[in-house]
Amino acid sequence: xxxxxxxxxxNGFREDISGRIIGTLSEMRLSSNNGSAFTDYEPMLQRIEDxxxxxxxxxxxxxxxxxxxxxxxxxxxxxxxERQTKVxxxxxxxxxxxxxxxxxIDAHSFKEGGIALGAGLAQELGVYLDDDxxxxxxxxxxxxxxxxxxxxxxxQVMAIFAAGMPEYDQSFSxxxxxxxxxxxxxxxxxxxxxIRSGEPKRSKQHxxxxxxxxxxxRIEDWSSFDASLYAAIRFExxxxxxxxxxxxxxxxxxLTGSLLKMISQKKRELGLLKxxxxxxxxxxxxxxxxxxxxxxxxxxxxxxxxxxxxxxxxRTGLVKxxxxxxxxxxxxxxxxxxxxxxxYILTILSVQLPLQRLKDINxxxxxxxxx
Length: 371
Hints:
The chain is built from 14 helices and twelve strands. The chain is an alpha+beta fold. Strands 2-3-8-5-7-6 form a six-stranded mixed barrel, surrounded by five helices. Helix 1 packs across helix 11.
Protein backbone atom coordinates (compact mmCIF):
# COMPACT_ATOMS: atom_id res chain seq x y z
CA UNK A 1 0.00 0.00 0.00
CA UNK A 2 2.77 2.43 0.94
CA UNK A 3 4.74 1.76 -2.23
CA UNK A 4 1.75 2.15 -4.52
CA UNK A 5 0.52 5.32 -2.81
CA UNK A 6 3.97 6.97 -2.91
CA UNK A 7 4.59 5.90 -6.53
CA UNK A 8 1.18 7.25 -7.59
CA UNK A 9 1.82 10.57 -5.84
CA UNK A 10 5.20 10.89 -7.58
CA ASN A 11 3.51 10.05 -10.89
CA GLY A 12 1.01 12.80 -10.16
CA PHE A 13 3.77 15.31 -9.46
CA ARG A 14 5.58 14.33 -12.66
CA GLU A 15 2.43 14.72 -14.78
CA ASP A 16 1.58 18.02 -13.10
CA ILE A 17 5.06 19.44 -13.67
CA SER A 18 5.14 18.23 -17.28
CA GLY A 19 1.77 19.90 -17.91
CA ARG A 20 3.10 23.20 -16.58
CA ILE A 21 6.28 22.96 -18.66
CA ILE A 22 4.36 22.08 -21.82
CA GLY A 23 1.81 24.82 -21.14
CA THR A 24 4.56 27.46 -21.13
CA LEU A 25 7.47 26.09 -23.15
CA SER A 26 5.52 23.97 -25.66
CA GLU A 27 5.67 20.23 -26.22
CA MET A 28 8.45 20.03 -28.82
CA ARG A 29 11.05 22.39 -30.19
CA LEU A 30 12.77 22.47 -33.57
CA SER A 31 16.10 24.31 -33.81
CA SER A 32 19.29 24.21 -35.84
CA ASN A 33 21.88 21.63 -34.83
CA ASN A 34 24.36 24.28 -33.69
CA GLY A 35 21.73 26.42 -31.96
CA SER A 36 22.11 29.36 -34.36
CA ALA A 37 19.26 31.41 -35.81
CA PHE A 38 17.81 30.39 -39.17
CA THR A 39 15.62 31.86 -41.92
CA ASP A 40 13.09 30.47 -44.41
CA TYR A 41 11.01 29.11 -41.58
CA GLU A 42 7.59 29.69 -43.20
CA PRO A 43 7.80 26.56 -45.41
CA MET A 44 8.87 24.60 -42.33
CA LEU A 45 5.87 25.85 -40.38
CA GLN A 46 3.59 24.87 -43.25
CA ARG A 47 5.12 21.41 -43.47
CA ILE A 48 4.62 20.86 -39.74
CA GLU A 49 1.02 22.08 -39.86
CA ASP A 50 0.30 19.84 -42.85
CA UNK A 51 1.18 16.89 -40.60
CA UNK A 52 -1.52 17.94 -38.15
CA UNK A 53 0.64 19.78 -35.60
CA UNK A 54 0.46 23.36 -34.33
CA UNK A 55 3.68 25.35 -34.82
CA UNK A 56 4.92 28.84 -33.98
CA UNK A 57 8.21 30.73 -34.55
CA UNK A 58 10.04 32.10 -31.51
CA UNK A 59 12.90 34.49 -30.86
CA UNK A 60 14.20 34.23 -27.30
CA UNK A 61 16.12 37.07 -25.68
CA UNK A 62 17.07 38.42 -22.29
CA UNK A 63 16.12 42.05 -21.85
CA UNK A 64 15.81 44.58 -19.05
CA UNK A 65 12.24 45.64 -18.22
CA UNK A 66 11.95 49.13 -16.72
CA UNK A 67 8.98 50.87 -15.14
CA UNK A 68 9.50 53.94 -13.02
CA UNK A 69 12.47 53.27 -10.77
CA UNK A 70 12.14 49.47 -11.10
CA UNK A 71 14.32 47.61 -13.57
CA UNK A 72 14.23 43.82 -13.73
CA UNK A 73 15.94 41.37 -16.13
CA UNK A 74 13.51 39.04 -17.87
CA UNK A 75 13.35 36.37 -20.54
CA UNK A 76 11.35 37.79 -23.45
CA UNK A 77 9.88 35.47 -26.07
CA UNK A 78 9.21 37.10 -29.40
CA UNK A 79 6.13 35.39 -30.84
CA UNK A 80 3.57 35.39 -33.60
CA UNK A 81 0.58 35.73 -31.28
CA GLU A 82 -1.94 34.09 -33.63
CA ARG A 83 0.19 30.96 -33.97
CA GLN A 84 1.51 30.95 -30.42
CA THR A 85 -1.93 30.74 -28.80
CA LYS A 86 -2.39 27.40 -30.57
CA VAL A 87 0.88 26.14 -29.09
CA UNK A 88 0.99 27.63 -25.57
CA UNK A 89 -2.12 27.35 -23.36
CA UNK A 90 -0.54 29.94 -21.06
CA UNK A 91 -1.62 32.64 -23.54
CA UNK A 92 -5.27 31.60 -23.44
CA UNK A 93 -7.88 32.56 -20.84
CA UNK A 94 -6.99 30.88 -17.56
CA UNK A 95 -8.54 27.49 -16.85
CA UNK A 96 -7.45 26.43 -13.39
CA UNK A 97 -3.99 27.66 -12.43
CA UNK A 98 -2.58 28.42 -15.89
CA UNK A 99 -3.40 31.03 -18.51
CA UNK A 100 -4.19 34.73 -18.75
CA UNK A 101 -5.52 35.94 -15.41
CA UNK A 102 -5.91 39.63 -16.31
CA UNK A 103 -6.51 41.40 -19.60
CA UNK A 104 -6.68 39.90 -23.06
CA ILE A 105 -4.52 39.91 -26.16
CA ASP A 106 -5.76 41.53 -29.35
CA ALA A 107 -3.53 40.34 -32.18
CA HIS A 108 -3.36 43.71 -34.01
CA SER A 109 -2.69 45.79 -30.87
CA PHE A 110 -0.15 43.27 -29.61
CA LYS A 111 1.84 43.44 -32.85
CA GLU A 112 1.91 47.25 -32.60
CA GLY A 113 3.71 47.12 -29.25
CA GLY A 114 2.15 44.96 -26.57
CA ILE A 115 3.58 42.69 -23.91
CA ALA A 116 2.24 39.85 -21.76
CA LEU A 117 3.91 39.51 -18.37
CA GLY A 118 4.16 36.69 -15.89
CA ALA A 119 2.21 37.41 -12.70
CA GLY A 120 5.33 37.49 -10.51
CA LEU A 121 7.19 39.71 -12.96
CA ALA A 122 4.29 42.18 -13.12
CA GLN A 123 4.15 42.31 -9.34
CA GLU A 124 7.87 43.00 -9.03
CA LEU A 125 7.66 45.79 -11.61
CA GLY A 126 4.56 47.20 -9.96
CA VAL A 127 2.60 47.36 -13.23
CA TYR A 128 -0.90 46.45 -14.31
CA LEU A 129 -2.93 46.49 -17.51
CA ASP A 130 -2.34 49.40 -19.93
CA ASP A 131 0.81 50.54 -18.11
CA ASP A 132 3.80 51.41 -20.27
CA UNK A 133 7.15 49.77 -19.67
CA UNK A 134 10.47 50.02 -21.49
CA UNK A 135 12.42 47.14 -22.98
CA UNK A 136 16.15 47.80 -22.79
CA UNK A 137 18.78 45.71 -24.53
CA UNK A 138 21.77 44.59 -22.42
CA UNK A 139 24.00 45.25 -25.47
CA UNK A 140 25.23 48.75 -26.33
CA UNK A 141 25.12 48.46 -30.12
CA UNK A 142 23.28 51.56 -31.35
CA UNK A 143 25.82 54.14 -32.57
CA UNK A 144 24.99 57.77 -31.75
CA UNK A 145 26.82 61.06 -31.45
CA UNK A 146 27.23 60.26 -27.75
CA UNK A 147 28.67 56.80 -28.35
CA UNK A 148 27.05 53.38 -28.33
CA UNK A 149 23.67 53.15 -26.62
CA UNK A 150 21.35 50.22 -25.93
CA UNK A 151 18.21 49.68 -27.98
CA UNK A 152 15.06 50.84 -26.13
CA UNK A 153 11.43 50.09 -26.99
CA UNK A 154 8.27 51.20 -25.20
CA UNK A 155 5.49 48.61 -24.95
CA GLN A 156 2.13 48.44 -23.21
CA VAL A 157 1.02 45.73 -20.79
CA MET A 158 -1.89 43.93 -22.44
CA ALA A 159 -2.15 40.76 -20.36
CA ILE A 160 -0.83 39.12 -17.22
CA PHE A 161 -0.55 35.34 -17.17
CA ALA A 162 0.10 32.59 -14.64
CA ALA A 163 2.34 29.73 -15.79
CA GLY A 164 1.83 27.61 -12.69
CA MET A 165 5.61 27.58 -12.10
CA PRO A 166 6.91 30.37 -9.82
CA GLU A 167 10.23 30.68 -11.66
CA TYR A 168 8.38 31.11 -14.97
CA ASP A 169 5.93 33.66 -13.54
CA GLN A 170 8.81 35.74 -12.19
CA SER A 171 10.95 35.83 -15.32
CA PHE A 172 8.93 35.14 -18.50
CA SER A 173 7.22 37.62 -20.82
CA UNK A 174 5.93 37.62 -24.41
CA UNK A 175 6.52 40.39 -26.96
CA UNK A 176 5.84 40.72 -30.72
CA UNK A 177 8.14 38.71 -32.97
CA UNK A 178 9.27 41.78 -34.93
CA UNK A 179 10.37 43.63 -31.78
CA UNK A 180 12.30 40.61 -30.52
CA UNK A 181 14.02 40.29 -33.91
CA UNK A 182 15.10 43.94 -33.78
CA UNK A 183 16.61 43.48 -30.31
CA UNK A 184 18.50 40.40 -31.54
CA UNK A 185 19.66 42.26 -34.70
CA UNK A 186 17.81 39.72 -36.90
CA UNK A 187 16.35 40.51 -40.31
CA UNK A 188 13.89 37.64 -40.63
CA UNK A 189 15.61 34.98 -38.56
CA UNK A 190 14.17 33.07 -35.62
CA UNK A 191 15.77 31.00 -32.88
CA UNK A 192 13.47 27.97 -32.98
CA UNK A 193 9.98 26.67 -33.76
CA UNK A 194 7.68 25.46 -31.01
CA ILE A 195 5.46 22.48 -31.87
CA ARG A 196 2.39 21.01 -30.20
CA SER A 197 0.74 17.69 -30.99
CA GLY A 198 -1.83 17.54 -28.19
CA GLU A 199 -0.45 14.16 -27.10
CA PRO A 200 2.37 14.94 -24.64
CA LYS A 201 2.59 11.31 -23.51
CA ARG A 202 3.63 10.38 -27.06
CA SER A 203 5.96 13.33 -27.60
CA LYS A 204 9.02 11.12 -28.14
CA GLN A 205 7.19 9.21 -30.90
CA HIS A 206 6.22 12.50 -32.51
CA UNK A 207 9.85 13.65 -32.35
CA UNK A 208 10.92 10.48 -34.20
CA UNK A 209 8.20 11.03 -36.80
CA UNK A 210 9.16 14.66 -37.47
CA UNK A 211 12.96 14.35 -37.38
CA UNK A 212 13.36 12.84 -40.90
CA UNK A 213 11.46 15.80 -42.37
CA UNK A 214 14.12 18.30 -41.25
CA UNK A 215 17.66 17.05 -41.88
CA UNK A 216 20.23 19.34 -40.32
CA UNK A 217 17.84 20.38 -37.58
CA ARG A 218 17.28 19.09 -34.06
CA ILE A 219 13.88 18.30 -32.53
CA GLU A 220 13.59 17.92 -28.75
CA ASP A 221 10.65 17.05 -26.56
CA TRP A 222 9.56 18.85 -23.37
CA SER A 223 11.61 16.63 -21.01
CA SER A 224 14.82 18.31 -22.20
CA PHE A 225 13.58 21.92 -21.71
CA ASP A 226 13.93 21.76 -17.92
CA ALA A 227 16.00 18.60 -17.79
CA SER A 228 17.34 19.05 -14.25
CA LEU A 229 13.84 19.40 -12.77
CA TYR A 230 12.47 16.43 -14.72
CA ALA A 231 15.48 14.26 -13.80
CA ALA A 232 15.10 15.25 -10.13
CA ILE A 233 11.46 14.12 -10.09
CA ARG A 234 12.28 10.78 -11.71
CA PHE A 235 15.20 10.19 -9.34
CA GLU A 236 13.06 11.13 -6.33
CA UNK A 237 10.47 8.53 -7.30
CA UNK A 238 13.18 5.89 -7.63
CA UNK A 239 14.74 6.89 -4.31
CA UNK A 240 11.41 6.83 -2.47
CA UNK A 241 10.66 3.42 -3.94
CA UNK A 242 14.01 2.06 -2.74
CA UNK A 243 13.58 3.53 0.76
CA UNK A 244 10.07 2.14 1.15
CA UNK A 245 11.33 -1.20 -0.15
CA UNK A 246 13.01 -1.61 3.24
CA UNK A 247 9.49 -1.94 4.67
CA UNK A 248 9.13 -5.05 2.54
CA UNK A 249 12.45 -6.37 3.83
CA UNK A 250 11.34 -5.85 7.44
CA UNK A 251 8.09 -7.66 6.65
CA UNK A 252 10.08 -10.50 5.11
CA UNK A 253 12.10 -10.79 8.35
CA UNK A 254 8.81 -11.18 10.22
CA LEU A 255 7.74 -13.90 7.82
CA THR A 256 11.09 -15.67 8.16
CA GLY A 257 10.91 -15.49 11.96
CA SER A 258 7.34 -16.77 12.03
CA LEU A 259 8.18 -19.78 9.87
CA LEU A 260 11.32 -20.58 11.90
CA LYS A 261 9.27 -20.42 15.10
CA MET A 262 6.64 -22.69 13.61
CA ILE A 263 9.24 -25.22 12.52
CA SER A 264 10.78 -25.18 16.00
CA GLN A 265 7.38 -25.68 17.66
CA LYS A 266 6.20 -28.33 15.21
CA LYS A 267 9.33 -30.47 15.04
CA ARG A 268 7.55 -33.48 16.48
CA GLU A 269 4.72 -33.28 13.95
CA LEU A 270 7.15 -32.66 11.11
CA GLY A 271 9.21 -35.66 12.22
CA LEU A 272 6.07 -37.77 12.28
CA LEU A 273 5.21 -36.65 8.75
CA LYS A 274 8.70 -37.65 7.62
CA UNK A 275 8.28 -41.03 9.29
CA UNK A 276 5.00 -41.50 7.41
CA UNK A 277 6.78 -40.99 4.11
CA UNK A 278 6.81 -37.23 3.53
CA UNK A 279 10.00 -36.12 1.82
CA UNK A 280 11.86 -32.84 2.39
CA UNK A 281 10.53 -31.44 -0.91
CA UNK A 282 6.95 -32.08 0.24
CA UNK A 283 7.54 -30.20 3.48
CA UNK A 284 9.24 -27.39 1.60
CA UNK A 285 6.20 -27.04 -0.64
CA UNK A 286 3.99 -26.90 2.44
CA UNK A 287 5.89 -23.97 3.98
CA UNK A 288 6.40 -22.26 0.63
CA UNK A 289 2.66 -22.34 -0.02
CA UNK A 290 2.02 -20.96 3.43
CA UNK A 291 4.39 -18.05 2.80
CA UNK A 292 2.84 -17.35 -0.61
CA UNK A 293 -0.67 -17.42 0.85
CA UNK A 294 0.33 -14.87 3.51
CA UNK A 295 2.01 -12.75 0.82
CA UNK A 296 -1.05 -12.90 -1.43
CA UNK A 297 -3.33 -11.81 1.41
CA UNK A 298 -1.02 -8.86 2.11
CA UNK A 299 -0.85 -7.92 -1.58
CA UNK A 300 -4.61 -8.03 -2.05
CA UNK A 301 -5.25 -5.95 1.07
CA UNK A 302 -2.54 -3.46 0.06
CA UNK A 303 -3.93 -3.11 -3.47
CA UNK A 304 -7.48 -2.60 -2.22
CA UNK A 305 -6.54 -0.05 0.46
CA UNK A 306 -4.17 1.90 -1.79
CA UNK A 307 -6.71 1.90 -4.62
CA UNK A 308 -9.43 3.26 -2.31
CA UNK A 309 -7.16 5.98 -0.92
CA UNK A 310 -5.96 7.07 -4.36
CA UNK A 311 -9.45 7.14 -5.87
CA UNK A 312 -10.71 9.25 -2.95
CA UNK A 313 -7.83 11.70 -3.37
CA UNK A 314 -8.22 11.84 -7.15
CA ARG A 315 -11.96 12.56 -7.00
CA THR A 316 -12.20 14.74 -3.91
CA GLY A 317 -8.75 16.35 -3.51
CA LEU A 318 -8.99 15.66 0.21
CA VAL A 319 -5.28 16.23 0.85
CA LYS A 320 -4.01 19.67 -0.15
CA UNK A 321 -0.53 21.18 -0.26
CA UNK A 322 -0.20 24.45 1.65
CA UNK A 323 -3.95 24.30 2.11
CA UNK A 324 -4.60 25.27 -1.55
CA UNK A 325 -3.16 22.91 -4.16
CA UNK A 326 -4.57 19.39 -4.36
CA UNK A 327 -2.03 16.62 -3.91
CA UNK A 328 -1.78 15.14 -7.44
CA UNK A 329 -2.06 11.38 -7.89
CA UNK A 330 -1.85 9.19 -10.96
CA UNK A 331 -2.20 5.42 -10.86
CA UNK A 332 -0.15 3.44 -13.38
CA UNK A 333 -0.49 -0.27 -14.07
CA UNK A 334 3.30 -0.64 -14.20
CA UNK A 335 3.60 0.38 -10.53
CA UNK A 336 1.00 -2.17 -9.45
CA UNK A 337 2.71 -4.94 -11.41
CA UNK A 338 6.16 -3.98 -10.08
CA UNK A 339 4.97 -4.04 -6.46
CA UNK A 340 3.33 -7.45 -6.94
CA UNK A 341 6.44 -8.94 -8.56
CA UNK A 342 8.77 -7.52 -5.89
CA UNK A 343 6.46 -8.81 -3.15
CA TYR A 344 6.54 -12.37 -4.43
CA ILE A 345 10.31 -12.30 -5.03
CA LEU A 346 10.98 -11.13 -1.46
CA THR A 347 8.55 -13.72 -0.10
CA ILE A 348 10.32 -16.55 -1.93
CA LEU A 349 13.70 -15.31 -0.68
CA SER A 350 12.44 -14.93 2.91
CA VAL A 351 11.29 -18.55 3.16
CA GLN A 352 14.58 -20.01 1.96
CA LEU A 353 16.17 -20.11 5.44
CA PRO A 354 13.18 -21.90 7.07
CA LEU A 355 13.14 -24.37 4.17
CA GLN A 356 16.81 -25.16 4.78
CA ARG A 357 16.04 -25.87 8.45
CA LEU A 358 13.66 -28.65 7.39
CA LYS A 359 16.66 -30.73 6.36
CA ASP A 360 17.88 -30.77 9.96
CA ILE A 361 14.80 -32.58 11.21
CA ASN A 362 15.66 -36.22 11.98
CA UNK A 363 12.45 -38.21 12.15
CA UNK A 364 13.97 -41.25 13.95
CA UNK A 365 15.64 -39.12 16.63
CA UNK A 366 12.45 -37.14 17.30
CA UNK A 367 10.33 -40.30 17.62
CA UNK A 368 12.89 -41.88 19.95
CA UNK A 369 12.83 -38.82 22.24
CA UNK A 370 9.09 -38.91 22.58
CA UNK A 371 8.65 -42.66 23.23
